[in-house]
């Protein structure tokens, strides 16, 4: 009898060990993909934007950003692992659930300019009405297909493309494409994308800072498959007893307009200012693609302590054109905060450009406003 019990448990243990080892076994299987040129693979990836799929993905970001009061959701997104269930019917209609020990935060993007956010911890459903011209990064931006599409689009044809070794991702053989930005001022050294060679659907994306051998951002599917859209999955279900509220993204324009009312120049650090939407004139976006930086003026008491706070958070103190300043450097993202001498506005400059570019822009901006 004891021998039979031991044998039964041996079978159970062996089964558990086999299940635990399946991901390792799958990754060790031979990888075979058809021969594709870099331009062919890039074209297939871009053409896959309309693919319908469902799966489970994780992103791992190591931006090294300091904790910022009121932006814990953003800093956790860019500093750590984000676990996501995702369903996409079209690029404009999808659902992404962010999973954590505290519960779920589900985002539903509906056709048009409506979206819903479900917070399981607070049992609250929020409807967001209207186009979101400017918004903070969200988990849906880090899903491999969305991330790959955006990076390829912003990299443009000026970037250099090459084929890299295939790997196995989510049980599939994935063809590899490397994009190297042409502008050396970008903080991004290279972007590696592995995609299904037939459909072009991106399965894994790695983004490297300039000169780094480890990705600052990795996003990959652990499971993904074609999906026939189901409206029940893509439509939020408001259960009895849950809270409900409505938000208007246009409110952001009012908040920003109250921060600073300084006319920004048409060019900074040799980069032209990009066109902005009505209501957001106090924001300056310069450059373009993978070398874009933003400028925002924060007036009066709201910005008075930003430089000191940045130094306390680990930034480097600077003196720019006689003004107090601080520099924050992290993989893929740099920032400079400067308060011109005797001026009532503190300027925040941040983006995927080198600190030299930001310092040059901050110097020009400081000299400009002090001459007025």
Features:
single chain, 372 residues, alpha+beta, outer membrane lipoprotein receptor (LolB), chain A, Phosphorylase Kinase, domain 1, 12-stranded mixed β-sheet, 6-stranded antiparallel β-sheet, 25% helix
Describe the structure.
It is a single chain. With 372 residues, the chain is an alpha+beta fold. It folds into two domains: 219 residues, Lipoprotein localisation LolA/LolB/LppX (outer membrane lipoprotein receptor (LolB), chain A), CATH 2.50.20; 119 residues, Phosphorylase Kinase, domain 1 (2-Layer Sandwich). 25% of the residues lie in helices and 40% in strands. It is built from nine helices and 20 strands. The strands form three sheets. A twelve-stranded mixed β-sheet has the order 7-8-9-10-11-1-2-3-4-5-6-12. The longest helix has 27 residues. The radius of gyration is 24 Å and the shape is globular. About 2% of the residues have low confidence.
Could you describe the largest sheet, including whether it forms a barrel? 12 strands, mixed
Mean pLDDT: 85
Please indicate the percent range of residues in DSSP E strands (runs of 2 or more). Answer: 35-45%
Our Rg estimate from Cα atoms comes to 24 Å
Poorly predicted regions = 21-27
Structural class: alpha+beta
Q: Could you state the CATH homologous superfamily of the largest domain?
A: Lipoprotein localisation LolA/LolB/LppX
* CATH-assigned fold name of the largest domain: outer membrane lipoprotein receptor (LolB), chain A
- The tally of domains stands at 2
* End-to-end C-alpha gap: 94 Å
Q: What's the helix count?
A: 9
How much helix is in the residues? 25-40%
Characterize the overall form: globular
- What strand line-up does the widest sheet have? 7-8-9-10-11-1-2-3-4-5-6-12
